[in-house]
Amino acid sequence: MPVTQPTLLRLATAGSVDDGKSTLVGRLLHDSKSVLADQLDAVERVSRDRGLARADLALLTDGLRAEREQGITIDVAYRYFATADRSFILADCPGHVQYTRNTVTGASTADAVVLLVDARKGVLEQTRRHLAVAALLRVPHVIVAVNKIDLVGFDEDIYTQVASDLATVAFDLGLPDLVTVPVSALEGDNVVDRSARTDWYSGPSLLEVLETLPVADDPSHEEFRFPVQLTLRPQGAARDAAHREYRGYAGQIASGVVTVGDEVVVLPSGRRTTIAGIDTADGELTEAFAPRSVALRLAHDIDVARGDLIAAADHAPEPVRDLFATVCWLSQAPLSKHSRVLLKHTTCTTRAIVSAVDGVLDLDAVQIVPAQDLGLNDIGRLRIRTAEPIAAEPYARHRRTGAFLLIDAQSGQTLAAGMIGDPLAGEGEHADDWDI
Questions:
Q1: Strand runs labelled E in 256-395
Q2: Are 113 and 143 in contact, with CB atoms under 8 Å apart?
Q3: 29, 59, 137, 374: which is deepest, by most CB within 10 A?
């Protein structure tokens, strides 16, 4: 039986500077008829004022004034478009190395990443970095659009060589099922419709790939996890049958399903209880699925606060203070051993110290090499000790509860995006494998 496709796909673009990301997004919007007439008129008018012979479709996404003036993408531009088969939320990420943090942001919630590669330049360092980010974030699908195929005369041999180089890097990074498509974002070849000028390519167009991708990362199929955001104790609320005043714990279900009567454990305290009620703005429920926002009532009076995790009692993580992690360092100031930071894991924020820097990812060799510190945009391995125990889980198994941020305690600046690894990976058993 054919797989029933969901109605929404979260999509992010990535690639090096001038590889044509904004033009590709503009072409997708234009050729899928997702552009309003007045928007297209404005783009055509600006393009004529610049002396261009055709509409610069990149202007459909480069919304910031600085972006339009420089002809580059700086911020993550989010766009919505739809076809008859699927709706899309698209994050157009910048290509400059100094904006890698924006790419991490855009890709962190994506179901798929479309990475652009200039057919004339092939695989660059930034290409490897973005593939590494996609692998690190466990993005379910990675599609590479080998762009500007028109500028190499639609040459099959050039495309084949670039696709082969990409497959080698993807294999080294552990990215399965990489898909490549030869496209011309400027001319529209193989973006929405298949092109007769690439008669040697028998695969689908880029849009056809995106319309048929399965979204396998369904949080409702995982173990129940509920990070507590807020304790609700409204004054004047009705009391229950035991004459207790209302107390609920609000948040968003990170994964799994919760049902009234389920046995749960509150972490890090380890206290067990059962679910007495599930409340929403629309009334009570008997069952709720991720990623719904609800308020849970517990059968026992337990000290529960923001940052605690309510989890399925039989499949709960063990709170720990020592973490092995892979991070993408996003700050100008380097990170070294003994650096003191704040660690934000789900709704919990705690003080932490870097107990060791185990290494950094060499983007050419695609392996971890020894390092004393991490610089801007480096991807590396750390050991971190937290002041308070957290309910840590390997990111490879739990994408939502396996991620964290490192924050500067004084400025509040985000320093790193991190993924928790299996403790065994920090003991040297996988020294030649950068995978978390």
A1: 257-259, 263-267, 271-280, 283-285, 287-289, 293-298, 309-312, 320-329, 335-336, 340-345, 348-362, 367-369, 373-374, 379-390
A2: yes
A3: 374
Q: What are phi and psi of 135, to 5 degrees?
A: -70, -40
**How far apart are the C-alpha atoms of 200 and 423, rounded to whole Å?**
48
Q: Identify the pLDDT of residue 428.
A: 38
CA nearest 144: which of 125, 123, 158? 123
pLDDT tens string 92-140: 766 445 555 566 766 777 889 999 999 999 999 888 888 888 888 888 8
Domain residue limits at 311:
220-315
Looking at the structure, do residues 160 and 25 belong to the same domain, yes or no?
A: yes
Is beta strand 414-420 parallel, antiparallel or unpaired with respect to 403-407? antiparallel
How many Cβ atoms sit within 10 Å of the Cβ of residue 286?
Answer: 11
Q: Report how many domains make up the chain.
A: 3
Region of 188 please: left (phi>0), alpha (psi -120 to 50) or beta: left
Same domain? 177 vs 238 = no
**200-229: pLDDT as tens digits:** 999 999 999 999 988 755 666 789 999 999
Question: Is the separation of the CB atoms in 5 and 86 below 8 Å?
Answer: yes
Nearest to 89 by CA among 142, 137, 25: 25
Kindly report the CA angle at 248 between 245 and 249, in degrees rounded to 5?
150
- Residue matched to tokens 């199929």: 221
Q: Average of pLDDT values for 58-83?
A: 54
Domain end among 292, 315, 338: 315
CATH, residue 72: 3.40.50.300
> For tokens 């992010």, what's the residue?
12
Query: What is the pLDDT at residue 68?
Result: 38
Q: What's the pTM?
A: 0.74
